[in-house]
């Protein structure tokens, strides 16, 4: 059985990696125009998603299909850049990570 | 939506249709409209039964309508039903002209330019925005204007706009601001491209939402098509900007003038009224017959209980949608109700 501390550490690393991957993707402004699609690139329909705009505002929603392409459609109020917390991003990341395993 | 008197629609539609010809077909359409509207009044359009409000045909602007009648239809679940067949002329009933779209030069200010959206934000497509595209997109191949004159490369003929608007843009049309005039597709000033929408008279909620796989998301009360997400990746990869006007609409050969976002009350785009209780105002019907309201309420807030289709219910409006932000390249996320096949 896995050491609980190790398990916790692993989870933290996974979380951090996912979060930082997410955040670093947001930071590439040249790819901003793909953001709503990129947010669902490895997702399946109905999975939660999030992306930020060029101002750093956070858009959280659900992956939905438009003409066979998955796009992140926001259904929660926009979280403006100054109010975005790492927890906001982590919450979405963890949730989509969890969902993707559940559905495969 | 407010309850509206539908008597005007009966009279005006009869006049409108009467003006188009006096044959039996036209008369029967006019009669059908009258019957349609009378029936609607009798069933009280605002009543909410099981979360459903029936479609109110009187909300469509009369000068956008070519005809509206009740027809038999089959819904996406296979059930036989009745639908409104709404034919609009495609030109926004609340405006006299379209545009502006592309800025003429790198000096053009927001008043004389349209919009572009990216990553959820709606930008003024000013001259300075165009001159900054290589920085904005981090790609030095962007050069949408003449370096010597400062004039923006605009598709100013039908041939050019169609060449630049198709999926595989020829290299000669890379680095163009794409702008198609409605006059290329309509012989009559003040009219656009006519389209017919089949909308269930009484919306039917689905067990699980349906994807938006058709080109039409819905139709605005002013007669304009609500289109699916614009393929911005394809547009940008050809170094083109498919310019919108302030209402986030533009013209293509198939749909004519159509919207890719809801942006009321900004620049040349007319505002819509809030509901008397401060709820956002309705401006369109989705293809499943549920109304689409503005994103924000009168206090500038957005609801926190929207489902993945961007819909929710309340006692007076039943199930309805709220449009996404003007720069989000969509109105709703999915169809919560059955659409006509
Ligand atoms: Zn379009
Ligand atoms: Zn509402």
From TrEMBL, chain A:
<keyword id="KW-0732">Signal</keyword>
<protein>
    <recommendedName>
        <fullName>DUF3551 domain-containing protein</fullName>
    </recommendedName>
</protein>
<feature type="signal peptide">
    <location>
        <begin position="1"/>
        <end position="27"/>
    </location>
</feature>
Automatic annotation (TrEMBL), chain B:
<protein>
    <recommendedName>
        <fullName>YHYH domain-containing protein</fullName>
    </recommendedName>
</protein>
<feature type="domain" description="YHYH">
    <location>
        <begin position="197"/>
        <end position="296"/>
    </location>
</feature>
<dbReference type="InterPro" id="IPR025924">
    <property type="entry name" value="YHYH_dom"/>
</dbReference>
<dbReference type="Pfam" id="PF14240">
    <property type="entry name" value="YHYH"/>
</dbReference>
């Amino acid at each position: 059985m896995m050491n609980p501390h190790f398990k916790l550490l692993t989870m933290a690393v996974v979380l951090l990696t996912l979060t930082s991957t997410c955040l670093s993707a947001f930071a590439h402004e040249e790819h901003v125009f793909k953001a709503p699609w990129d947010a669902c690139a490895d997702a399946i329909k109905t999975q939660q998603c999030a992306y930020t705009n060029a101002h750093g505002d956070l858009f959280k929603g659900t992956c939905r299909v438009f003409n066979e392409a998955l796009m992140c459609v926001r259904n929660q109020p926009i979280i403006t850049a100054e109010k975005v917390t790492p927890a906001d991003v982590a919450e979405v990341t963890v949730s989509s990570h969890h969902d993707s395993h559940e559905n495969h | 939506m407010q309850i509206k008197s539908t008597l005007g629609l009966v009279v005006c539609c009869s006049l409108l249709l009467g003006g188009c010809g006096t044959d039996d077909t036209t008369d029967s359409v006019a009669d059908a409209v009258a019957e349609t509207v009378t029936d609607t009044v009798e069933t009280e359009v605002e009543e909410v039964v099981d979360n459903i409000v029936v479609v109110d045909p009187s909300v469509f602007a009369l000068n956008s309508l070519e005809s509206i009648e009740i027809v038999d239809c089959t819904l996406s679940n296979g059930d036989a039903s009745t639908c409104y067949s709404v034919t609009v002329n495609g030109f926004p009933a609340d405006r006299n002209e379209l545009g502006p779209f592309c800025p003429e030069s790198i000096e053009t200010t927001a008043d004389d330019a349209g919009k572009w959206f990216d990553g959820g934000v709606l930008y003024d497509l000013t001259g300075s925005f165009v001159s900054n595209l290589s920085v904005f997109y981090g790609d030095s191949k962007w050069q949408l204007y003449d370096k010597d004159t400062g004039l923006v490369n605009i598709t100013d003929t039908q041939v050019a706009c169609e060449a630049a608007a198709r999926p595989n843009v020829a290299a000669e049309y890379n680095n163009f601001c794409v702008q198609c005039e409605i006059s290329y597709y309509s012989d009559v000033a003040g009219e656009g491209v006519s389209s017919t929408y089949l909308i269930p008279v009484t919306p039917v909620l689905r067990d699980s939402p349906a994807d938006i796989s058709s080109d039409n998301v819905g139709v605005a009360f002013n007669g304009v098509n609500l289109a699916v997400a614009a393929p911005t990746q394809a547009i940008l990869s050809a170094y083109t900007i498919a310019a919108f006007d302030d209402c986030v609409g533009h013209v293509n050969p198939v749909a004519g003038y159509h919207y890719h976002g809801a942006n009321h009350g900004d620049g040349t785009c007319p505002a819509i009224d809030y509901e008397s209780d401060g709820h956002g105002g309705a401006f369109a019907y989705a293809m499943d017959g549920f109304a689409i309201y503005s994103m924000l309420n009168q206090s500038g807030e957005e609801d926190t209980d929207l489902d993945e289709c961007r819909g929710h219910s309340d006692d007076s409006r039943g199930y309805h949608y709220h449009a996404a932000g003007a720069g989000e390249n969509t109105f709703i996320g999915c169809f919560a109700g059955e659409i006509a096949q």
